[in-house]
Design brief:
Elements: H1 3-16, H2 35-46, H3 49-52, H4 57-67, H5 75-85
Length: 86
């Protein structure tokens, strides 16, 4: 995530009184350039009792398995990987 863009988005949320709905949806393999940081933040969030109260235990196991899925080698994987690097 680009911190400058995140701050601008937060300002819009505050100004427009936007209330994000906390949904966690992840279907495809991920390729973020800072995967280790992403994983640590997600692991911490998944330990939050308030968040855990909103979802069944199976949801968290499914999310863990989804994050471990690997896209088969080929042009689609390479294109997606490159898109996260820019």
């Amino acid at each position: 995530m680009d911190d400058a863009k995140a701050h601008a988005l937060i300002e819009i949320f505050v100004r427009e009184d936007v209330r994000p709905v906390p949904n966690i949806i992840h279907v495809f393999p991920i390729y973020p350039k800072d995967l280790a940081r992403f994983e640590s933040h997600l692991a911490a969030a998944f330990q939050d009792p308030g968040l855990r109260a909103c979802y069944p235990a199976a949801f968290f196991q499914e999310q863990y398995q989804t994050r471990r899925r690997v896209e088969p080698a080929g042009p689609v994987r390479e294109r997606r990987r490159r898109s996260y690097l820019t």
